[in-house]
């Protein structure tokens, strides 16, 4: 896709122009129903690491299984819906408080707390990356928590219980706010997704050990976009835009230092003559 505006990467662009050969992969422009389905709050994490040779940044991507009800077969970042237990205020916490996240994401403080907890839980469930530790260190080896990961995934265990029983605290200081994407109103399943970025903690390994994905890998953002442009993978507008934004940085440190101006974006597919334009408003 060809995007317009914002070369600095501190805010998402205004629109995307879909190349002709990719148009069949996207939904046809259509009017939203009189009563759109409410969007469920969710959280997505963009895990990043420096390329070993120092030539840039890689992101962790997963291709969803084709049986999924939402984004089937698409290449995505780890993430999922907020569980009501994610709002548990008893969770040990290091880093920016919920009030600060509420300001960044323009939401209530209880929801901000739930979003941060949800993204930490989803990162662990879907990739095995645990953004937790003590007040002075981050977990380096997550192997000891394999049973807890399975129990979190099945819903038998809440994040609050897991952290308390393991003597760990949530490390909100490892996360940065990145974006807020909302599924278009015409879709039958809708999500109000807050995007976070986080560096892969030292010593940890991201994997694809979840039933929701068929494969997982690290890749340079520009290479992932090239695969999509060649029709080898499918990317939704939020993933495409985020990859494009991350590709502008030469290191993880630069990504984490970027101060984002976050706005709520709901893509709209519009026919503009012979082309399809994705308006991001």
From TrEMBL:
List the molecular function annotations (GO) for this entry: hydrolase activity, acting on acid anhydrides, in phosphorus-containing anhydrides; metal ion binding
Lineage top rank: taxon: Bacteria
**What are the boundaries of the region Disordered?**
21-40
Q: Which cofactor does it need?
A: Mg(2+); Mn(2+)
Could you tell me which residue ranges the Nudix hydrolase domain spans? Answer: 38-249
- What PANTHER family does this protein map onto? ACYL-COENZYME A DIPHOSPHATASE NUDT19, TESTOSTERONE-REGULATED PROTEIN RP2
- Which keywords are on file for this protein? Hydrolase, Magnesium, Manganese, Metal-binding
This protein is called NUDIX family protein
Please give the SUPFAM superfamilies that the UniProt record associates with this protein: Nudix
Species, as recorded: Saccharomonospora viridis (strain ATCC 15386 / DSM 43017 / JCM 3036 / CCUG 5913 / NBRC 12207 / NCIMB 9602 / P101)
């Amino acid at each position: 896709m060809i995007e317009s505006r914002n070369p600095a990467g501190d805010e998402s662009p205004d629109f995307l122009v879909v190349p002709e050969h990719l148009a069949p992969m996207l939904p046809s422009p259509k009017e939203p129903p009189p009563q759109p389905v409410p969007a469920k709050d969710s959280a997505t994490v963009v895990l990043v690491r420096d390329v070993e040779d120092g030539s840039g940044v890689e992101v962790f991507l997963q291709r969803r299984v084709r049986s999924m009800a939402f984004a089937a077969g698409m290449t995505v970042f780890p993430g999922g819906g907020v569980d009501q237990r994610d709002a548990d205020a008893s969770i040990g916490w290091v880093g920016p408080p919920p009030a600060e996240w509420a300001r960044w994401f323009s939401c209530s403080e209880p929801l901000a707390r739930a979003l941060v907890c949800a993204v930490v839980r989803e990162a662990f469930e879907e990739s095995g990356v645990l953004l937790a530790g003590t007040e002075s260190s981050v977990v380096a080896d997550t192997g000891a928590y394999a049973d807890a990961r399975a129990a979190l995934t099945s819903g038998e265990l809440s994040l609050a219980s897991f952290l308390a029983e393991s003597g760990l605290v949530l490390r909100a200081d490892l996360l940065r706010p990145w974006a807020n994407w909302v599924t278009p109103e015409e879709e039958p399943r809708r999500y109000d997704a807050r995007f976070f970025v986080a560096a892969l903690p030292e010593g940890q390994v991201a994997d694809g050990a979840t039933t929701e994905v068929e494969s997982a890998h690290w890749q340079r953002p520009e290479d992932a976009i090239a695969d999509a442009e060649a029709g080898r993978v499918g990317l939704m507008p939020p993933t495409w835009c985020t990859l494009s934004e991350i590709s502008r940085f030469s290191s993880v440190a630069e990504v984490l230092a970027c101060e984002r101006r976050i706005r709520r974006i709901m893509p709209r597919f519009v026919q503009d003559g012979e082309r399809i334009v994705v308006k991001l408003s």
